[in-house]
């Protein structure tokens, strides 16, 4: 029987992190490369000369067999492999002991904007090719559906509590962490694997994003994802996953777990404006930031860093800048803001989780990640974007923002952990 706690305002901390990204497949390696300004964007061949996409953020140093049996890996889409691997890393760092926890109070909330797109593409080619419907894999559906990452993580760790897939486009990872935070804070869970995973680098996704003019046509990887620069021309599609182990402070202390940072607040809003364009007023993301700060009990002047959504698209960067001005008021110009997508590209449903990880490390180490490639700042983007190089800063609290197609906005407020 579930032992439901009567506490509904519990503190929530991060005790483990795992990630697979274009700049590395171990969290500390990723952090070193991010703070060194390493760009994970590389030239690609999309496989179709009619697709005007020349760069992407690919994961190049990942072997799923390091985290699962080969037979099991073959029964998962690449996005799901990423999620299972990231969760395994988070579990190891947090010293998660399945036998020592109530399985009904351990959750899995893993977001994905698209799910198994590689599998879907491969099976569609069979269906409309000479092989036909008879050759469609019986594993097609479980490999393709976007909830399977949460399902596989729950199976791998015996987690029988809430298991959900959050699919809010590019805000999925942030919303997954935020909803896990709420479930723990409200007493429904003690622990939760939370994050996002995506493997969208396929011809059909590149063609779709390119035809809607969302992807950059740039050919130089170093000048492709350049958030807040007046030369920016679209985002760079990327893949990967990040999973954080969230836990109530009481439960973490009882286990003797090391604490990386605290999740103190979460805001989630909708633009109610357009299927792809952010609202030009900036009201939606501004309100998400305000709600996250309110829940954390912090005023704008207490925020020392913002990890921006910062996609390198002309509209997003301008309107997010406006939203930060609205939310932070007179403090806006004094708060350093940077975009990790300048190095990672845009990992879609995994982006917010990867950026929450980076924000957690920034608080832990007192070092703000840079926005690389920013050399000609857009006059409409007038904040301090930490251009070029990482910056030491003793930050006590930070925000991590995500904005998704459909008008989905999410903001997490993280606090430095101090004993």
How would you summarize the topology of this molecule?
Blueprint: E1 12-20, H1 27-35, E2 42-43, E3 55-56, H2 70-74, H3 78-94, E4 106-111, H4 117-127, H5 140-144, H6 148-157, E5 163-164, H7 172-185, E6 191-198, H8 203-211, E7 240-248, H9 249-255, E8 261-270, H10 283-296, E9 305-307, H11 314-328, E10 337-338, H12 341-344, H13 351-365, E11 367-368, E12 391-392, E13 397-404, E14 408-416
Parallel strand pairs: 4-5, 4-6, 9-10, 9-13
Antiparallel strand pairs: 1-7, 1-8, 2-3, 6-7, 8-14, 11-12, 13-14
Helix pairs in contact: 3-6, 7-13, 10-11
Provide structural commentary.
Helix content is 32%, strand content 18%. It is of the alpha/beta class. It folds into 2 domains: 14-255, 3-Layer(aba) Sandwich (Peroxisomal Thiolase, Chain A, domain 1), CATH 3.40.47; 266-416, Thiolase/Chalcone synthase (Peroxisomal Thiolase, Chain A, domain 1). The longest helix has 17 residues, at 78-94.
Short description:
The protein has 13 helices and 14 strands. With 419 residues, it is an alpha/beta fold. The protein has two domains: 14-255, Peroxisomal Thiolase, Chain A, domain 1; 266-416, Thiolase/Chalcone synthase (Peroxisomal Thiolase, Chain A, domain 1), CATH 3.40.47.
